[in-house]
Amino acid sequence: MPRTPSQDRSRARVERILRAAAELLAETEAEKITARTLATRSGVSVGTIYQFFADVDAVRQGVAERTRDELQKVLDTEFTAELARASPGAFFTHLIDVIGDLQRRHPHIGCMVKPDHADGFRGAFASELRDYVAAHIHDAFSRAFVGLSKRALASRLKVIIAALLGALGATPPRQDPSRAEHLRQTKELIAHYANAAFVLNEQTGSISERAKRRQ
């Protein structure tokens, strides 16, 4: 965490340091980033970096915390229990867009879809964000479908998330012309399965319950 700057000029310097750190984290291994390379990229002195951060690791954590906060705001605002209840398919197709946009704008987070073992920081950070998203999905759907048992909810979400990660993991690179069509098909399939897993199964369950009561 950076020391909270009180002046606009100091805040601008912290912003430059964090932006430079994010760029370097996207380009090279975290362990290879030094205060000197960070100072060169950000255009501030090494002394200025230590004025606001205890060490380079604190800078890395500052970048990570900022990205986590951004993701949390998006999840809390846009991925609600109400959306999950109204359309499980829309919930997951929108999630595909958000994850893609987040990774495009913040390449320092690593790949949230496929494990990245090339860099300790990126791999661990991507894994952390992936687990955070999964926990948020589970929470939203547990509040949306209170009639489902914990076991039924967990098993359905496990299959959907596995299918989602598998499909996204096979997505062609950004420069590949087939990428757009692959993502379109992925959204269509995931939406179909999510709606079938929750909406149709819930309706079937309700019918079954009514039939039992009539017996």
Description:
It is a single chain. The protein is mostly helical and 215 residues long. The protein has 2 domains: 52 residues, Homeodomain-like (Arc Repressor Mutant, subunit A, Orthogonal Bundle); 136 residues, no CATH class. Helix content is 76%, strand content 0%. The chain contains 9 helices and no strands. The longest helix is centred in the C-terminal third of the chain and has 36 residues. It starts with 7 loop residues before the first helix and ends with a helix. The C terminus is likely disordered.
Secondary structure layout plus pairing:
Blueprint: H1 8-27, H2 35-42, H3 46-52, H4 56-78, H5 81-86, H6 88-105, H7 120-144, H8 150-169, H9 179-214
Q: What's the SSE pattern? A: HHHHHHHHH
Number of strands: 0
Q: What percent of residues are in strands?
A: under 5%
- Main β-sheet, in a few words? none
Tally of DSSP helical segments: 9
Rough outline: elongated
Helix content: over 70%
Could you tell me the radius of gyration in angstroms? 21 Å
The average pLDDT score comes to: 88
Q: Which structural class fits the helix and strand makeup? A: mainly alpha
Low-confidence stretches: 203-215
User: What count of structural domains?
Assistant: 2
Distance between the termini: 63 Å
